[in-house]
Amino acid sequence: MPYRTDVPPDPESNGQRLAALRKRRRWTQERLARETGYSLSAVKGFEQGRRSLDRGSVILAFSRALDCHPTEITGQPFAPADRNAQDAALAVAAVHRALLRHGRPARPTDQEAAAVDVTDLRTRVEAANALRQGADLSRTAELLPALLRDLQVAAEVCTGQDRLTAYDLLASGYECAMQYLYKLGRSSAATLATERVVWAAERTEDPMRLLSARWYEAGEYLAIGEHQDAADVIDGALVDLGTPRTPEALSLAGAFHLKAALNTARAGDGTSAQRHLLKARQAAEQLGEDRNDYQLQFGPTNAAIWSVSLPVEMGRGRDAVRAAEHVSGDLPQGYAAERRSQHWIDVGRGHWYNGQRDEALAAFLTAEAIAPSTTRMHPGVRETVRTMIRTQRRGNLLELGMRVGAL
């Protein structure tokens, strides 16, 4: 039986959706240019597909001016473009249902209550997160619905220290669900999952666990362009962490500095972005190893990856390409596939901004080889490849365009 989805095929570019949103408000291109601070020629270039509308800061500027969600411009969620992505999407409804049932009585059967095993739940949570970090969303999807149900039951029936542990595991399960939904472009459900992460973390009675949840909360504000709110959450966490005295605290502080760097980069403050990146790199150097506290994957490798992604966020292709020369060959093969693929996506976008089309395509193909489905579902890849095809329709580029749904 062919796969069916409630998400229709998307033939439009970000620029075409931008034009439709502008016309819905009965604005001229001149009005949109005036409201956002972009030139009229830039607005025309974006709408006509001559300029790639893929940078987060630019999309946020237009979405704020037009009072819409960024996904109304990017077109997410996309129709799954390959079998693995289709399989991954099959669990979206079940995961969403589990999130909606959060906080309601679990009403476990006697058998479910008797079967609660915190040690086994920890193993299952770690397995789900490992699959997600490995960019295996289809197998993550197989585990999540039943896992979330069992975690909710455990949080309800356990007592004493086991209950605190169950809340910690529930927070990790919700984190996995949040990242899974985010990768599939289900932003509303991912936001719901983030709220559940914070709720569960609050009930662990562990201040560090709650701070780790705040990292994701800051990301929600950042995603919709509420940079001051994101900064308030980040600054509050860094104050609470103070001078980190344990590797766990140092790792978390470094992760918050990376989040602050992204937030300030998207807000157009390149100086602050570089300052926070430097602090993150100093924390990583002090750690001397890659850690995965609270699934945040902080350490020298991730700090180096961000040295490429931040210039990309600011549209500085030359700086991104220069930074990538010192990073790409040094990525550990065993490092999380989702992070390695994201790095090569950023390298590709950096080359594109730098006018290096062939190098951009090669980087995207490298990312696809590492994590096929997540690369094809990435909105930046989709939009950039679509723009590339408009001016250079040939060979591998056309084939990639078909795989990502850009044709």
Summarize this entry quickly.
The chain has helices at 14-24, 29-36, 40-48, 56-66, 71-74, 83-89, 92-100, 110-114, 118-133, 137-157, 160-183, 187-202, 207-223, 227-241, 247-266, 270-287, 300-313, 317-324, 337-353, 357-370, 372-376, 379-391, 395-404.
Describe this structure in words.
The chain starts with 13 loop residues before the first helix and ends with a helix. With 407 residues, the protein is mainly alpha-helical. It folds into three domains: 1-75, Orthogonal Bundle (434 Repressor (Amino-terminal Domain)); 81-205, no CATH class; 316-407, Serine Threonine Protein Phosphatase 5, Tetratricopeptide repeat, CATH 1.25.40. The chain is built from 23 helices and no strands. The radius of gyration is 21 Å and the shape is globular. The longest helix has 24 residues, at 160-183.
Topology of helices and strands:
Layout lengths: L13 H11 L4 H8 L3 H9 L7 H11 L4 H4 L8 H7 L2 H9 L9 H5 L3 H16 L3 H21 L2 H24 L3 H16 L4 H17 L3 H15 L5 H20 L3 H18 L12 H14 L3 H8 L12 H17 L3 H14 L1 H5 L2 H13 L3 H10 L3
Q: Could you list some keywords that capture this structure?
A:
disordered N terminus, Serine Threonine Protein Phosphatase 5, Tetratricopeptide repeat, 3 domains, 407 residues, 434 Repressor (Amino-terminal Domain), mainly alpha
